[in-house]
């Protein structure tokens, strides 16, 4: 015989088993158990935990209608996922194929399901709710024991200056513009590839190239490029900018290899124009536009630089000698013309004599004159 008083708290429920069979569910309050035989087995549960999880849950729920009065059953199919709410507060994300057994008295329970077989997009409101409570994590993932813990939602933000391509299970789906996106990842492999649509400056630096006359040159090249077709660019090559760099590198080698050093130094626009002509079409085929290209500088080897400096020095010296001779010839011609004029003009001759006398007098402190002015002139300036 047994006689026992049981007090059940507001947040508790007690399952009473007799002969291993469920016979009652005790509600909050005071209860007296009396009878003959063995004392019934009691199992106390905290409904604040929300989930009813026992090894025999499925069998108990199907066997005892009494249990269904206190526990709600929810099932998410393999092609669905769900958001579980308690009193309008998101508790977590339910994985596909999951069965939930929840205490009805825990609060207002709601399960919103989503068909992930036909639509993987997570709408803005749902994405905001998931992000707000941090449900996009293993801690907030409500799953069956056979389901691996994964990040349920693939979330990303595409900036204004970028474009993105969406791939599902290896298949291209569509291009994404600027904005925030979310996609269900259950049973699917979601991959998003992004690419920058802004102008990008590439520098092909330090290229060792042999010119036509076998001079080793180091050339730096700058190029301004822009992706105008994101879909074509990402589907044509894995690394777009690496492809552009290689095309510029090959074009630079081809342009320099057919010209001598003198030709390159003489026509500096040749490299720019030739490289642009060679790469414009290949880049356009992968969705990239070449805006501009320019040779930054040409670096010569040390010995070649010394030789080139000697050549330049010799050229400048020759030019200076030519100028000197030209000026000497002009001066002689001027003296000849002056002499011809004075030959036939005695007055001009006398003025020239006075000018010479003035220059001589500037350098003499004292001058003694004998024979008058005529003697001075004849003694200082004599003309045959």
TrEMBL record:
Domain Band stretches: 157-312
Location(s), subcellular: Membrane
Primary localisation category: membrane
Signal peptide coordinates: none
Bilayer topology annotation: Single-pass membrane protein
Highest taxon of the lineage: Bacteria
Family annotation (Pfam families): Band_7 (PF01145)
Family matches, as SMART domains: PHB
Protein family (similarity comment): Belongs to the band 7/mec-2 family.
Protein name, per record: Slipin family protein
